[in-house]
């Protein structure tokens, strides 16, 4: 469409020129004593146009001639700027490829090119960001090469760029801080990493990357409670898969419970757990076992185990045999002071599932504590024959052997001791 319009305009201009020039009888006379020159008006106009074009071309040629030095200088600056970006890009590529020595050389070359450009008073608009990135690449390479002195020097240069000239972007500064925290973690310096993270704004501290670094730092420094709080935030942000989040939270909860050195500290640790974490079988079982070891209130320990116990009865497929065996051992540890309510729970569960080896063992040990020797021997013998857990299997036959010795039944005691020693 545009070509058609231009063609119409061209034809219109040609027609106008033809109409004007075809009937133009005007004459231009130029007196140049003693000469007189007569020219047609059309030729005079054409001559004027040619003279204008020649003058215009001459002026443009002179302008181009005088601008050659400036253009040459601009071309040299562009070449230096191009070399700077090539060196910085090569540093990134070499770093990704694991060639850390070459990456550091390229980063230093980029810094040298930027220094040359600054000396020529041709500062780039993004010069400060280029310097920061070059220092960061050099520091990353030095960290990989275990050259901590060079790493710290480049890191300090990168941080000083923002303080001295005030042009570092917020994202660049945050990136430098996060990288420095990661390097501190790689050096196993958890406190330095936490200090770097604490210097970040609150919004940046809640980013997934910052939270991951904080989780590693708090675990490395032994701050289990802080690590657990951080892991909860990461799980809320869906930074882990559901299984991964559950595994991390379970491990930290177990670590928090295991660090308690007295019943009061254990109770405080239990109170710090979320309701969902308290229902994790391993956590509740370890907390109860820890309470027994510390000589605390066994009633409280059994209260912690109650949700897990109810889950084992109502949803037996939700717990593995190993978890159920640990639950039985945790309840067994407090049978000396078990109340009537818990005895009723144990007996009711055994009546509901009489063939369950775990419940047979627990009910047998409860009968043994209450000095119901005959029933205890029957239940423990059945549990010993059906039990798959090696520890419960051994304990069941040890208890049967002790009961046989009380009755002075040497033969049965020897058989039970043999089964306990053989593990089957």
Structure, briefly:
Keywords: Cell inner membrane, Cell membrane, Membrane, Porphyrin biosynthesis, Transmembrane, Transmembrane helix. The protein has 22 helices and two strands.
- At CATH level 3, the topology of the domain at 349-424 is Serine Threonine Protein Phosphatase 5, Tetratricopeptide repeat
Rg result: 44 Å
| Beta strands, count | 2
Order of helices and strands: HEEHHHHHHHHHHHHHHHHHHHHH
User: Percent helix among the residues?
Assistant: over 70%
Give the mean pLDDT. Answer: 84
Task: Write out the strand line-up for the largest beta sheet, numbering strands in chain order.
Answer: 1-2
Give the CA-CA distance, first to last residue. 96 Å
CATH architecture of the domain at 349-424: Alpha Horseshoe
Tally of helical runs: 22
* Low-pLDDT residue intervals, each spanning 5 or more residues: none
CATH class of the domain at 349-424: Mainly Alpha
Q: Label the structural class.
A: mainly alpha
Per the principal axes of the C-alpha atoms, what is the gross shape?
elongated
Largest sheet: 2 strands, antiparallel
In percent, how much strand structure appears in the residues?
under 5%
Keywords: Cell inner membrane, Cell membrane, Membrane, Porphyrin biosynthesis, Transmembrane, Transmembrane helix
Domain HemY N-terminal: 26-116
Pfam family, one: HemY_N
Main location: membrane
């Amino acid at each position: 469409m545009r070509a058609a319009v231009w063609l119409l305009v061209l034809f219109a201009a040609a027609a106008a020129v033809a109409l004007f020039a075809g009937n133009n009888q005007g004459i231009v006379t130029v007196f140049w004593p003693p000469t007189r020159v007569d020219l047609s008006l059309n030729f005079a106009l054409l001559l004027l146009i040619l003279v204008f074009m020649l003058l215009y071309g001459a002026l443009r040629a002179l302008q181009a001639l005088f601008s050659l030095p400036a253009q040459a200088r601009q071309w040299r600056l562009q070449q230096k700027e191009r070399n700077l970006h090539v060196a910085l890009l090569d540093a990134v590529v070499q770093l990704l490829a694991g060639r850390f020595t070459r990456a550091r050389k390229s980063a230093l070359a980029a810094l040298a090119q930027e220094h040359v450009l600054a000396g020529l008073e041709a500062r780039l608009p993004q010069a400060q960001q280029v310097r920061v990135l070059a220092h960061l690449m050099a520091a990353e390479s030095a960290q990989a090469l275990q050259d901590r002195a060079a790493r710290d020097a480049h890191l300090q240069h990168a941080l000083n760029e923002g303080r001295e000239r005030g042009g570092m972007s917020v994202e660049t500064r945050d990136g430098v801080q996060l990288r420095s925290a990661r390097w501190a973690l790689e050096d196993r310096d958890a406190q330095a990493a936490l200090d770097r993270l604490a210097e970040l704004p609150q919004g940046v501290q809640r980013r997934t990357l910052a939270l991951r670094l904080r989780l590693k730092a708090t675990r490395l420094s032994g701050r289990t409670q802080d690590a657990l709080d951080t892991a909860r935030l990461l799980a809320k942000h869906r930074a882990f898969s559901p299984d991964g989040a559950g595994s991390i939270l379970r491990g930290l909860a177990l670590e928090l419970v295991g660090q308690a050195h007295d019943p009061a500290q254990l109770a405080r640790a239990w109170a710090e757990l979320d309701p969902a974490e308290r229902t994790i079988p391993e956590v509740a079982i370890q907390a109860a076992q820890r309470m027994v070891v510390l000589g605390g209130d066994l009633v409280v320990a059994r209260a912690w185990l109650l949700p897990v116990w109810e889950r084992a009865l109502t949803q037996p497929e939700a717990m593995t045999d190993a978890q159920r065996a640990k639950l039985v051992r945790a309840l067994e540890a407090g049978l000396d002071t078990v109340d009537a309510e818990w005895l009723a729970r144990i007996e009711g569960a055994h009546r509901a599932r009489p063939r369950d080896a775990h419940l047979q063992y627990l009910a047998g040990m409860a009968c043994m504590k209450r000095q119901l020797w005959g029933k205890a021997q029957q239940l423990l013998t059945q549990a010993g024959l059906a039990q798959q857990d090696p520890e419960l299997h051994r304990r069941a036959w040890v208890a049967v052997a002790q009961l046989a010795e009380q009755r002075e039944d040497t033969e049965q005691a020897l058989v039970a001791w043999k089964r306990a020693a053989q593990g089957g």
